[in-house]
Predict the structure.
Amino acid sequence: MYNLAEIIAIGRDSSFLSIERRHTIADNDTTLLKLYRLKPKTYTLMITTSALDGNGLSGQIKDSYSATINNTFIKLNGNTAITFTVNADSASFAANRFSIVFKRTIPTIVTYKDVRACNQQNNIVVSWNNATEKNIRNYKVQEQQSTNDSSFVEVATIAVKLNNDGIANYSWLDVTAQVGTHYYRIKATDVQGNVTYSSIVNATIRNNAGQVPSIRIHGNIVHGNTVTLAFINVKAGVNTALLYNLQGQLIKEFKIAHGGENISLHNININRNLATGWYQLKVSGKSINIKVPFFKQQ
């Protein structure tokens, strides 16, 4: 237990233990960790558990110093690495900084119902209601602007209304939606950090003529060094085109001035040394945000 370097032990009453024999873990059981002789640096606390995941409990690290670490859930059948830093603040190296608390698992209930995305003038209303709602921390609206990109970005956080098994109605107004089709889903996070997603819904913002703007490359195939983009129903303005490879690396940036014609062609010159394969142009302006994939041939 005692040595010249750092010390870690299990605290029980006034004793410091390396091994503790206890009854079966129950709700609110707490293991107090004692750490001594810590130095100003970054440590990793490795917590290893085995076969504790079948009793309906969850385990959390309690950290009296770091709000980021506090309430972190640990694996009940495996390893959990907790990285923490000790500095000049005495609270960062307090002997009783860490403990592990076991709690009865709280059942999470959220059943999405009637998830919609609808136009409201030049905006989009995302709405949903729940047949049941219990133990939910918050909802987040996530947006995906193109089916060519599977990633979603969180655009709004919505506070929970009921959390009592009742029916709750929610809505959020996207006032920044540009012309084009927008895809949304709802992310519910419960009090223990578990996540439940809704189905994906979409709505389309059209331009004043009622036509959806688009940008196309004929056949999605490019030969040589010139890419010809067909602008269809795009408003007048200067647009930015960013060329990416499949790894998401930016290769080149272009500026495209468009006069607002219903259909017009714009040529851009790409690097003739680009390897054969798939690439993507992301074209954006004050009225569009469109991704155009294409295959480059030599």
The chain has a mean pLDDT of 85. The chain has three domains: 7-104, 109-205, 214-297. Residues 214-297 form a domain with the Immunoglobulin-like fold (CATH 2.60.40.1930).
